[in-house]
Design brief:
The complex is a heterodimer.
Chain A (H helix, E strand, L loop, with lengths): L2 H12 L19 H11 L2 E6 L2 H12 L5 E3 L25 E5 L2 E3 L4 E5 L8 H4 L2 E7 L3 E2 L2 H7 L6 E5 L4 E2 L7 E2 L6 E7 L3
Parallel strand pairs in A: 1-11, 2-3, 3-6, 4-7, 6-11
Antiparallel strand pairs in A: 4-5, 5-8, 9-10
Chain B lengths: L7 H8 L3 H22 L5 H17 L1 H14 L3 E5 L2 H14 L4 E4 L3 H5 L2 H7 L3 E4 L2 H8 L16 H12 L8 H18 L2 E4 L3 E3 L4 E6 L3 H8 L2 E7 L3 E2 L5 H12 L7 E5 L7 E7 L3 H6 L14 H5 L1 H6 L10 H11 L1 H4 L11 H5 L6 H14 L5 H15 L1 H17 L25 H10 L1
Parallel strand pairs in B: 1-10, 2-3, 2-4, 4-7, 5-8, 7-10
Antiparallel strand pairs in B: 5-6, 6-9
Classes of the chains: A alpha/beta, B alpha/beta.
């Protein structure tokens, strides 16, 4: 018998009596103001939230914040002329010099400041990790209260997706918080109005 | 782990020789526990979430076979290759086989307690494979040739000076430098080079979803993703209890995991892997290694609900004052002490005794495992099956003789109090294990019984 069949046979023999799934596994958060909560949680993890009225204002803000940086990459068509680093590479290792990536993402979660990004929005999965600095753009109305709502919204992942909450960090040296472990050293979230 | 293993009590004694250090260790972990408290109290539904998580995991234990089969089928449909390993040796051989097939001799790894349990790094190194741990804490202990001392905070037993010295030696940082920011930056540069040059990446699995065939890996540093998205081959290793039925259940577990572990509302990255990226190979190794045996132990099967948050360690008065290495097991602390005897009763018979049975572990456990009850039950199993050390057995026998005879008990108490008053050196000496790192209490003048008998007459 293969290990697979052995393991399954032993599980069948040893598993406890059948129980049903719990009736309640989702809860509502009912925040007074979802966007305020989202902002509050992100400020705790060193992330700035900036509301922009339209794509022109986004371009203007991007220039203000990152205009002097070399190796700017983006997935936002309206910023493609501004970016000086093309994501049209075949090998993701070539992204190692990206300094700032401004990336479209799907929605945000107020209770923890996480943003959902997936294959659908990225030409390369490694982009939000390998870039030195990261900015997400999400529609201002694309915020949910908590993770239960997030999974209702996220019926399925395509091939890969990730909740990202703030810049990369570690506290492995005497519990001192250091921002910028292996992933992005800084994070900004643009909430885009309209749409 | 071929070195002579010290029993928990002996190792703790060594750990306790440096009092300021032990106090620092104790306070550091208690601080993490307090962050957990603060964070959990932000959610009015916290207790219901724990209840839901425990209930889902109970369902999982009673449907494990079906869920694993469904997971395997979906994963295969997603283009992921699934392997099954009955034990640590088979797991290690599978990983080695995959690397050999691709002619790869260097691999990056993100945190996986399962590979610690299987002693995979040692095995691969013996077979000519270099494994670089990429979690900062794990890289630190790897450079020191030590195992992690905590499942979430692998280097929590080290002071920044230890790490500064280590990095000076291995990474060429300035001598005497101890600034965490500076040291972390050095590790970032050092490991970025590894991420960019390694063709294989191994990650652990926090949750595997039966419904979709996908799995979730949580990190704060981003090391799992850096490794996996750059490598030609991604190997994810999981104990079979990591399975959960549906994607929506991740809502429950991701809300509990980081809050319980470090007090964060969520880890920085919660990465959902479903299909390999174009041109990449993705493998999942599903490991038993004693879990199916534990599943059959009615009193202990709940230990398989564990989501590895480490909350039980941070709160444990014994863990905080004895350190993770004293437990001589991949998973230390209260949860490790109920998992380890299942793997090897002879080697781990001391661990269920490394507890005061105060119950704090059970109170903080996000999936409501009855940890302290299981510690108590393991003691009985181990004693019955003859694994308890002689010295302990003699003590327990003497105790049961005294407690079974009321008159003898009264006499012994009186004798004890007299001796402690008149000849304190009889108990305040190195032969009395209760005197180690503690002062003995002031003996009361009389027992409660004597007091009661005297006062009832008035």
């Amino acid at each position: 018998m293969s290990s697979r069949d052995n393991i399954l046979a032993k599980i069948r023999q040893n598993k406890p009596e059948e129980v049903a799934l719990p009736a309640v596994t989702t809860f509502a958060s009912n925040f007074e103001n979802t966007e305020d909560k989202f902002r509050e949680m992100l400020s705790l993890i060193y992330t700035e939230v900036i509301v922009v009225k339209n794509l022109e204002e986004l371009a203007q803000k991007a220039e203000e914040l990152y205009g002097k940086v070399v190796n700017r990459a983006t997935t936002i068509p309206a910023l493609s002329a501004w970016a000086d680093f093309s994501l049209n590479v075949s090998d993701p290792h070539e992204l190692e010099t990206v300094e700032i990536a401004i990336v479209q993402a799907e929605f945000g979660v107020a209770e923890n400041g996480a943003v959902w990004v997936s294959d659908q929005y990225l030409p390369h999965r490694v982009l939000p990790f390998i870039t030195q600095n990261l900015a997400f753009v999400i529609p201002r109305n694309a915020l949910v209260d908590n993770m239960h709502e997030a999974y209702v919204r996220l019926q399925d992942t395509l091939g890969w997706g990730c909740f990202i909450a703030g810049p990369s960090k570690t506290a492995d040296i005497e519990q001192s918080l250091v921002i910028g472990a292996h992933g992005a050293r800084s994070m900004v979230i643009f909430l885009l109005e309209g749409e | 782990m071929s070195k002579t293993v010290m029993e928990h009590a002996d190792a703790s004694e060594v750990f306790n020789r440096d009092e300021p250090y032990v106090n620092w260790h104790d306070e550091t972990l208690w601080f993490v526990r307090q962050k957990r408290d603060k964070s959990s109290k932000q959610l009015p539904e916290w207790e219901q979430l724990r209840e839901a998580a425990s209930g889902i995991k109970h369902y999982v234990l009673s449907h494990l076979d079906e869920l694993l089969i469904s997971f395997e089928q979906k994963a295969k449909e997603n283009g992921v290759q699934v392997h099954w390993a009955a034990n640590a040796a088979e797991h290690n051989e599978i990983v080695l086989g995959l690397l050999k097939k691709h002619k790869i001799d260097k691999m990056v790894k993100s945190k996986s307690m399962l590979t610690e349990e299987c002693h995979m790094n040692e095995f691969l190194q013996k077979n000519g494979i270099e494994v670089i741990d990429t979690d900062l804490g794990e890289r630190i202990v790897q450079l020191r040739n030590e195992p992690p001392s905590h499942i979430v905070l692998p280097a929590i037993h080290l002071k920044k000076k230890d790490i500064g010295d280590l990095f000076h030696e291995h990474l060429g940082t300035d001598a005497g430098a101890t600034d965490p920011q500076y040291l972390t930056e050095a590790a970032r540069q050092h490991l970025r080079d590894k991420f960019l040059t390694r063709r294989a990446a191994l990650t652990g699995v926090n949750f595997a979803v039966a419904e979709t065939g996908s799995f979730v890996v949580s990190t704060n540093e981003g090391n799992a993703d850096m490794g996996a998205h750059l490598a030609d081959i991604h190997i994810a290793c999981m104990g079979f209890e990591k399975i959960i039925p549906k994607q929506e259940h991740l809502g429950v577990f991701l809300r509990l995991l980081a809050r319980s572990a470090t007090g964060q509302p969520i880890t920085t990255y919660s990465s959902h892997f479903k299909k390999p990226r174009e041109g990449q190979e993705m493998h999942i190794v599903i490991v038993d290694n004693g879990r199916s045996t534990q599943l059959g132990r009615k009193d202990f099967r709940n230990s398989l609900k564990c989501i590895r948050c480490g909350a039980c360690m941070n709160t444990c008065p014994v863990y905080r004052r004895s350190g993770g290495h004293s437990y001589h097991n991949a998973v230390a602390g209260p949860i490790g002490s109920i998992l380890a005897p299942n793997l090897d009763m002879t080697k781990n018979a001391d661990l269920p005794f490394a507890s005061t049975l105060c119950g704090s572990c059970s109170n903080v456990c996000p999936v409501k495992i009855d940890i302290h009850d299981q510690l108590y039950k393991w003691r009985q199993v181990l004693a019955k099956e003859g694994y308890v050390p002689k010295s302990k057995e003699i003590g327990i026998r003497a105790m049961s003789t005294v407690l079974a005879a009321p008159r003898f008990y009264q006499w012994s108490g009186r004798l004890g109090r007299t001796v402690m008053r008149a000849m304190p050196f009889m108990v305040n000496n190195a032969l009395n294990p209760w005197y180690k790192q503690r002062d003995m209490p002031e003996p009361p003048k009389e027992s409660f019984r004597d007091w009661y008998v005297r006062n009832r007459k008035n």
